[in-house]
Specification:
It is a single chain. This protein has about 280 residues and is of the alpha/beta class. Strands 3-2-1-4-5-6-7 form a 7-stranded parallel beta sheet, with helices on both faces. Helix 4 links the parallel strand 4 and strand 5. Helix 4 runs parallel beside helix 5.
Length: about 280
Amino acid sequence: MSEGREWAVILGASAGTGAAASVALARRHHLQIFGIHRGNHPDTAARMQGEVEALGSGCHLRVGEAGTYASAREGAEEILRVAGPRSVRILVHAIANASVARLASGPGPMPAHPKQVEKTFEAMAHSFLWWTQALLERDLLTPGARLLALSNPMTDQLLRGTALVAAAKAALEVCVRHLALELGPSGIRVNLLKFGAVRTNALRATVGDGGADRIEEAVRAVIPAGRILRIEEVGELIALLAGEELAWFNGATLDFTGGETQSLWDYIVHHPPGTTE
């Protein structure tokens, strides 16, 4: 791999947001891509790698877990071997590995089991902290590096069965703010990007194809733009956040929902039950 080049580390790189971010970062900043994925989507991973390499950037893929303490340390060691010290310009935490469960008894999914709770919080919240620690301990971050976590409006909404996801993302937001406080003096920037509903494998795994269709229909009804967010738009914003122009953002939760949550109340007021367009 091109020695001396800056790298982007993408956790969950094979599809969805991670793949879109990889291509956008290679296009806008010519970053090398170190992507980690569990191997569930080999075709889309190969497609992403081809797009990145066609843009003139290298792409090193590691197949394996990324959402545990041990995997973060093992992955960081591989980054050190492949890219060398002070090489990582941005870390993008795009891990989607959550359980759909109720918190208590009732209709629908079974109540949450301790293993489901532990897995969801480890993958979607704690692993951001483990990766940050592992990169810092090995002196892998460039001066002014960016650490970016991803979230969604579930922290502000109630969708049956997604309580564990919402709670993990809320914990992630707290970690981001405190890491920003601790690392700010060194020039490292830590932020959380909250974006709205978008068609991804993670959404389908959470609510099923039928649920994804209903969510898209609901978003189209309430959102001012009248359409669902495109995954490529999320990737482009991530690439923008890696630029020097936006280095002032720190400890921020950036709203990229397109007014999804706010517009819901306007829709309810103007379309009460029993009314039609």
